[in-house]
Amino acid sequence: MIEFGFGPGVCGELADGATREWLVTDGLGGYAMGTVSGLRTRRYHALLVVAGETPAARRVGLVSLDPAVVLPSGARVRLGAHEWNSGVVDPRGYEYLERFDLVDGLPRWRWRIGDVVIERELAMTHGRSAVAVVHRLVAGGPVRLDLSAACTWRDAHGERRADGPTPRVEPADGGAVVEGAFRLAGPDWTPEGQWWLGVHHREEAARGLHPDEDLWCAGRFSGALERPGDTVSVLAWAGDLAEEPPPATQVVAAARQRHRAVVAAAKPADAVDATLALAADAFVVRTPAGPDVVAGYPWFGAWSRDTMTSYEGLFLCTGRADEGRELLRAYAATLSEGMLANTADTGRVEYNTVDATLWFLHAVGRHVTVTGDTDLGDELLPALHGVVRAHLAGTRYGIAVDPDDGLITQGGTPGTALTWMDARVYGVPVTPRVGKPVEVNALWINGLAGLAELTELAGQDPDELWRLHDRARESFGKRFPTPAGWLHDVVDAPAPAYPLGGAAHHDDDLLRPNQLLAWSLPYAPLEPDPVALRRVAAGLFTPLGPRSLAPDAPEFAPRHRGGPAERDGAYHQGTVWPWLVGPFVEAYRKAGLPTDDLLVGLVGHLGEFGLGSVSETADATAPHAATGCPFQAWSVAELLRVRRAR
Fold this sequence. Notes:
nine-stranded antiparallel beta sheet, 26% strand
């Protein structure tokens, strides 16, 4: 794997160290997360974030363990870091950092105070909401180490303030239980109980969200570090509070061993593939319903579209086909009226996408093709045929096959955005894409062909599916090419002067990346045109992947910044989406164009934002600073997939 390491020039400079983030997950949707410098810049940064009934229903528990070293002279050196709403950063423990490393996916800090060097490592237990934090004396000593436990218990998307109830802290063996929800254990616990008022999160301020909260300092652990090798460790866990996790050093060792096994199972070709395989592991979680996929950390839960788009990269490229099989079977059980459920982050089952179901057809087809698991294909075949029948008959939101040309159309309703470009501002879709979107129909044609092959493998007659496929493919070839050389983004869209679903229609020829699927899918409707692809690349491609809209469009947004409305308005209006590098590179390969240098920027990005992972989005203009989630499932999955396909 790539080993990411930074010295004092990055660790001690907040502009660098506080914008690089690390993530450790528990396999349930919970996590620990923070920055290289140790400064918490998001409301989501904490050492113990606990998943609820769904991965999206997270709560923040242990926020930080602030170290303070007491030297033989009696001098006390504080090694934590907090920013306050006054603008002051205090303490400034990052100024003592001489090294940060991410080794085997686990973060490690080293502070130097003269000849005293103290190291911190942390890890989570897989399959349980528990974190272990180990402090080790590397050089110097003897010293005493105090660890102040800053706590809360709140929804991960909110904040808690001192004008509300004081957190309930009850004594427990070796520590305390906070709010009856999570437990702390370590050496020489001393209860304290005081509010830290006005902790500031600069990233939330930049996102136009409430940036401040109050934290409860529940108490302090303390231990002696007499000689190099001595440790002072703390455990924090939720769930069964009576069952203490293994010793902290064992938790760290077990996590390191498991991470190495995850990488080995993926059989990586090089260090980059190994890094991406471990990054992929963070998104595969176990819920009461079985395996699922967290779309992105720190704020997303499971989204069916993201799950199915990510499927091949997360499961088939990492040696997790058995888990993938279980996931596909579970998702098939959610089909209703030919549509795949999208539980998203609402906690409710919703059916509100035009493309997630078609990505599901693709995922099942790829699973059977790559693994030879025809038993799964046979088992799911009736459900997949049901998807086709429902689309032919018409289903929710006016989603149907147009009998005139065999293409998928979506009638939509006011306030809905059914494709992956689904951002809304004040309830109004920014890119409703009503009509016949290009990638939806590419997926439909791809899905029909894949299903026809599964049907034939099962010994059934695929002729009707091939007939539907051939008709849709012929219509696609006639309708989507534009005089400019690329493909329409939507055809048969309502004309701007007419109401939704009005009689007059137009074809949208804005240069967008959705057309890449028309060339890149296994059963793509069109043969790649090198000239058209080069034109698409000239308008859209960046070092981190394709833009969502060409810069010469009137609606182009160069930066994905500001408050929620500004960010959502720019989300698909130029913002770069790294996941699209998958179809882009695949289309280039099919066209016989060179691809060796197309992924250089994204590989370099692995050490720039979410360490060892790939961000959700980036600004449309240079330097293409990352935005959105620092750790995004389909960004990682598609980069891994196209690298493994070389």
